[in-house]
Amino acid sequence: MSAAVTPPSAGTSLKNPAFWNFGGLFFFYFAIWQLAFTFLSRWLEVEAGMSHGNIGLLNSVMALTAFCLQPLYGYLQDKLGFRKHLFAFVVLVGALMGPFFAFVFTPLVEVNQVLGAIVGGLFLSLTLNAGVGIVEAFNERNSRANGFEYGHVRLFGSVAGATASLIGGFLWASDPDNIWWAATVSAIVLGTLLLVARTPKPGDPGYAAVAADAAAEGGADAAAEKPKVSRETVLTLLRSRSFLGFMVLMFGAAALYDVFDQQFPNYFARFVTGAIDPQVLFSRVVFVQILVEALVMVAMPFVINRIGAKRGLQLFALVLVVRVVGSAFFTHTYLLIFWRLLAAVEMPLMLVSVMKYITRMFDVRISATAYMIGFNMAKQVGIVVFSWVFGIAYDVIGFSLSYVIMGAVVLLVVLLAGWLMADDRHHALADGSVEPADGTPSETAARV
């Protein structure tokens, strides 16, 4: 058994030029993400005149599209390794966001809301719901190759979210359509940073990090080879009980995190009094939330290394229950702001725990596949199911009762997933990697 490796420090990361380049990729991608998800539901209701049910349909189509693409995306990204082709496609679609909403989506909605919801969901998913997996997996792989902590570089995404929320509020006040043109500008900058980003080539020191534990399986030569993604390796992953539990948790808790936030701005707007535009106030709340989230993200890798990724995921889900049920019963503006601010703890808990659970419990050679299937696919199935259902429920039984039901579903999912998932702390080194007794970097060899 090899000695534990000291985790990379924040100071070391700051001195690495690659850290800033990949941080920039996170920043400008999540600027697009935050602009879309902070303002989309309000824009659809106020500017496009869509019903809550059709807004839910659009979100379901986004998730269904992502679900269909995730297996292909995950497989291709593991095959591509450090190559940028899929990431570049995500950037291209993001750059078309302004023209799409101006010249395609709005005329479609005027003709037929359902058709507009379907086409809009398909388009947005290519950059957002489906595209995020490419961005996360690509940057996580490069963070290991370049020797910096994923949680630290992911911090740029939180900073971007705060910045985009604040600036987006001013853009909304001037003209709500400017939100989509700002997303286009961000995508152009993102594409430039992707073009200049240097990724490891075969033979470079960092190249073997794509399969960090391959040396334990086949020696140094195996570690230096391009990782092999076989059918048997993927089937082994899918037969894992812990992977099933992980998927259950993502299907319920991670999906309902997004579903809850999708139309929360519309719920929030009902309780805002005074002269301020509810969407402008909400954008400022999100700005503060994500600034706090960024601070929490700095410490979260160390917290998860201490408590374990499984417990981190369970804690994330329990905070979500508090936030959802609290929003149903305590609806004063300041209390709704407080419930929203709790997301500053939820997101870091989920993001860091997801990556650490995957790399600790499953074969790191197929980390992108595990992420795509276990996190994104399972989550998108949940969004497909819950977005439309709760979108209709908001119209039929109201937001408050819908939120109570949502909280009960999350709690049930947490209990089931906790029973299925194994504790990752038995496999964690000081750097968050895995050191099974027999040296095999997979759950089946390490624990069953």
From TrEMBL:
Membrane topology, as annotated: Multi-pass membrane protein
Full protein name: Oligosaccharide:H+ symporter
Superkingdom classification of source: Bacteria
InterPro entries in the cross-refs: LacY/RafB_perm_fam, MFS_dom, MFS_trans_sf
Species this protein is from: Brachybacterium faecium (strain ATCC 43885 / DSM 4810 / JCM 11609 / LMG 19847 / NBRC 14762 / NCIMB 9860 / 6-10)
GO cellular component: plasma membrane
Molecular-function annotations in GO: lactose binding; lactose:proton symporter activity
Pfam families with a match to the protein in the record: LacY_symp (PF01306)
Domain Major facilitator superfamily (MFS) profile residues, every copy: 1-425
UniProt main location, coarse: membrane
Protein keywords: Cell inner membrane, Cell membrane, Membrane, Transmembrane, Transmembrane helix, Transport
Keyword field contains Transcription regulation: no
Location within or outside the cell: Cell inner membrane
Transmembrane segments: 18-36, 56-74, 86-108, 114-135, 155-173, 179-197, 243-260, 280-303, 315-331, 370-394, 400-422
